[in-house]
Structures are given as structure tokens and as C-alpha cells.
Design a protein that fits this description.
Elements (H helix, E strand, L loop, with lengths): L4 H12 L14 H15 L4 H13 L3 H11 L7 H13 L3 H14 L4 H13 L3 H13 L6 H10 L2
Helix pairs in contact: 1-5, 1-7, 2-3, 3-4, 4-5, 5-6, 5-7, 6-7, 7-8, 8-9
């Protein structure tokens, strides 16, 4: 039986996407635009500045503007092949955009770069579930269980439930 999306999406977003110091904003004017405009300029002019791209993508993700977050990440992706956090954030955004095969691939890249990080295993498991690949998803959740010490409590519980 497929798990409910609402609880898992909230848990995944809160734990997989790294926290940003600025609060989430909605809309493209006011405080949100004040924060994002300089980052947009940097990310647009120099896609190799992956820290700026990640910060901007996280702000868009917190505002639940998944398309804008993906546009930013996609532009800098060729420069972030060795960055597990970037790959993991890409997986989270792609999953929210209902692109589970691409999300799974991004999580696999994150795992290849940082195999001890349980968040990537949970994200992979959830993406595989979205693809209907239940057996593979359970294996990914078992991988997350093996790395439970790296997981926040809510993701640890989720991995334990889904690994069974």
C-alpha cells in the first residue's frame, strides 16, 4: 500500500533540503525579491557559483516554487557534479516536480559522492516508491536505516517504517 504523500513530503522537505537562514517568502516582490535578486544575478552570470545557485534554489523551494528552483539548479548542474548536497537538493526538487526517475538518478549521484549520508538513501527510497518500484525502495530505506545516526528523528522513523 503506497504511503501518504503529505506527511512524507513535509518530512522530506524539512530534512532533505538543508536549512536556509532566511524565512520562506511567497511572491516575487518585497523581501523575497530583495533576497533573491542579487543571487539571481550571480547565478545567471556565473553558473559555476554553485553556492549561490543552491541558496537561490533553496529559497525558491521554501516558497514552494519548484519550477524556479529547478531552473536555477539545472543551469549550474554541470558545475556541481562533485557536490553531494547539490545532487540531493536536485533530487528533492525533481521529486516535487513529479519526475521520480530523474530524482532517483540525482539521489544516486549524491549517494555515490557521500554514501554515509542517510538523507540521500531516504530520498532515493521515496523516489523509487513514486516510480512504483517498491522492492528497490525498501532496499533504499534499509540503506537509510544502516545510516540512522546521520538522520534526524522524523526521517529515521520514516526509514524504519518503509524498510519493512
Amino acid at each position: 500500500m503506497p504511503p501518504t504523500k503529505s506527511v512524507t513530503s513535509i518530512a522530506l522537505m524539512s530534512a532533505l533540503a538543508c536549512c536556509v537562514s532566511a524565512p520562506a517568502f511567497s511572491g516575487a516582490t518585497g523581501p523575497f525579491a530583495d533576497i533573491t535578486a542579487p543571487l539571481e544575478i550571480v547565478a545567471e552570470r556565473d553558473p559555476s557559483r554553485i553556492a549561490a545557485a543552491m541558496r537561490l534554489a533553496r529559497l525558491h523551494a521554501e516558497a514552494r516554487d519548484w519550477n524556479a528552483a529547478w531552473r536555477v539548479l539545472e543551469r549550474s548542474l554541470p558545475h556541481a557534479t562533485k557536490d553531494a548536497e547539490y545532487q540531493g537538493l536536485s533530487g528533492t526538487v525533481l521529486r516535487q516536480l513529479k519526475r521520480p526517475p530523474e530524482a532517483s538518478a540525482a539521489y544516486r549521484r549524491a549517494i555515490a559522492l557521500q554514501p554515509a549520508e542517510g538523507r540521500w538513501w531516504v530520498g532515493l527510497g521515496m523516489s523509487l516508491e513514486d516510480e512504483g518500484r517498491w522492492r528497490d525502495a525498501r532496499e533504499a530505506f534499509r540503506g537509510a536505516e544502516e545510516r540512522a545516526q546521520t538522520l534526524p528523528p522524523e526521517l529515521r522513523r520514516l526509514a524504519e517504517r518503509r524498510a519493512r
